[in-house]
Specification:
- The protein is of the alpha/beta class.
- It folds into 2 domains: about 5-140, 3-Layer(aba) Sandwich (Rossmann fold); about 145-305, Lactate dehydrogenase/glycoside hydrolase, family 4, C-terminal (L-2-Hydroxyisocaproate Dehydrogenase, Chain A, domain 2, Alpha-Beta Complex).
- Helix content is about 40%, strand content about 20%.
- The protein has 10 helices and 14 strands.
- It has a 6-stranded parallel beta sheet. The chain has a 3-stranded antiparallel beta sheet with strand order 7-10-11, covered by helices on one side.
- A hairpin with a 5-residue loop joins β12 and β13 (about 260-270).
- α1 crosses α9 (about 225-240).
Length: about 300
């Protein structure tokens, strides 16, 4: 890609910019933030490591939405962060208002771009942007399942001692306490995970995955997670800019898939140069179906708040 913009130069936004620049995924990265000097400072700091990491991406920042012009992809990380004890849904009203101001700038300056949401609650904000812009669903999607799947794979590697590179996981549903860990599709070098870990221990790993963000927030106190979310965004962006056609869990707008309409939620999707190009329909058993529907019901509840 020629240009990617990141709205929100906080820790997630800055880390994302660093991963994208180090990966030479585009020629330009524009960072935007409402805080005076924050985006400019982050961009300059990353630019100064270019000779050390050997990338030629040009970074710049500011607070004027005109900087979004000519962006092919916009990553939205802006929003109020969670504080200890807060759920992702608690952020809804404040972050919807922030999202609306961002969408106004996007529609004015770069109406043909794609939008990748990271801000929480990501399922609801992705759906809201889809409705507000009127864009086709392939151009608006969110990051959640890649992060959740990575967390789960990390915990499995920690438990088994085996290489994380050989561990394949898939976490679907809403990004939160009702995320659905697809254990039947979890493997180490293609071997089902049940060959390595007992069900009791797997249940503990799934629960830790559900609370992965809260665990880091509780430890840090003053900051939620940012490296793992940024790395997850970079993985999705890599699939898009290199047209890899990778199947990754992606917050996508459903149009009948998995029995749901008019909702955005995490499902396996093909990511390529056109964004979210296709949703993959998994064969779910009764238990998985029930968990997915329960997760969707909670996302729908928050979406309904937007409509009321």
């Amino acid at each position: 890609m020629n240009k990617i913009s990141i709205v929100g130069a906080g820790r997630v936004g800055e880390s994302t910019a660093q991963f994208l620049a180090a990966g030479d995924m585009c020629r330009e990265i524009a960072l935007l933030d409402v805080r005076e000097g924050a985006a400019e400072g982050a961009a300059l700091d990353i630019q100064e490591v270019a000779p050390l990491y050997g990338f030629d991406t040009r970074l710049y920042g500011g607070s004027d939405y005109a900087l979004l012009a000519d962006s092919e992809l916009i990553v939205v990380t802006a929003g109020l962060p969670r504080k200890p004890g807060m759920s992702r849904s608690d952020l809804l009203a404040s972050n919807v208002a922030i999202t609306d101001s961002i969408l106004e700038g996007v529609l004015k300056h770069t109406p043909n771009s794609m939008l990748l949401f990271v801000s929480n609650p990501v399922d609801v904000l992705t759906y809201h942007a889809f409705v507000q812009t009127g864009w086709p669903r392939n151009r608006i999607f969110g990051q959640a399942g890649v992060l959740d799947s990575s967390r789960m794979a990390s915990f499995i590697a920690m438990e088994t001692g085996y290489s994380s590179q050989d561990i394949s996981t898939m976490v679907l549903g809403g990004h939160g306490d009702t995320m659905v860990a697809m254990l039947r599709y979890t493997t180490i070098s293609g071997i089902p995970i049940s060959n390595f870990i007992s069900q009791d221990k797997l249940d503990q790993i799934v629960e830790r995955t559900r609370n992965g963000g809260a665990e880091i927030l509780a430890l840090r106190q003053t900051s939620s997670a940012y490296d793992a979310p940024a790395g997850s965004v970079a993985k999705m962006v890599d699939a898009i800019v290199h047209d890899r056609k990778r199947i990754l869990p992606t917050v996508s707008v459903l149009e009948g898939e998995y029995g749901h309409h008019d909702i955005a939620i995490g499902v396996p999707a093909v990511l390529g140069i056109n964004g979210m190009e296709k949703i993959i329909a998994l064969d779910m058993n009764d238990e998985e179906t029930t968990l997915f529907h329960n997760s969707a019901a909670l996302v729908q509840k928050d979406i309904n708040l937007l409509k009321s």
